[in-house]
Amino acid sequence: MEKVRLYDKTFRPFIPNEKIMDSIAKTAEKINADFRGCEDIPILLCVLNGSIMFTAELMQMLEFNCELVSIKLTSYEGTGSTGHVKQAMGLTADIRGRRVIIVEDIVDTGNTIVELKRILEEHGAAESKVCTMLFKPDSYTKDIPIDYVAMEIPNDFIVGFGLDYNEIGRSLRDIYILDE
Ligand code: IMP
Ligand code: MG
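A: This is the predicted complex of the input protein with magnesium ion.
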């Protein structure tokens, strides 16, 4: 695999697609173990835009009926968090009384998860779990448990498989890390 150039920065290969898919399958297995045979129809909450690829792959591996709902939050500019989470688009459906599985691309500082939990509570969700493709444990400062983690990574900036650098790089099928 070769390095990629996105605007002013260069990224080197970090996690190949096969490994990503394998970790998603393992995560789906854990979710299936908890939800298979459930009588309700849980909501899969795709946190746009970053989570779009992960959500698409994950939901094909789930062995129970679920409903897809989206929300769009933003907090990153360039390669860092602004510390402010903005709601660019609200929940696309009523979630009152429902169990929700939040599907995130990456949990970094945890600000987004805190805001998501607040929004879900405000809209009357019965329960919510957090599922993330990537987790940066060295950056996470919150108490909210992250229920399902596909892969843990160091505190570096990455792109690909839905994750962007100033909105580009999302379409890369592998994950790349900032090459300094
Ligand atoms: P948090 O609110 O700091 O946990 O950050 C969550 C959001 O920031 C994620 O959903 C991503 O959209 C974005 N983000 C965090 N780390 C990265 C990264 O390494 N690359 C690209 N986006 C990131
Ligand atoms: Mg995100």
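The beta strands are 4-6, 9-15, 43-48, 67-77, 80-89, 99-107, 127-135, 148-152, 158-159, 175-178. The domain at 17-154 is CATH 3.40.50.2020 (Rossmann fold).
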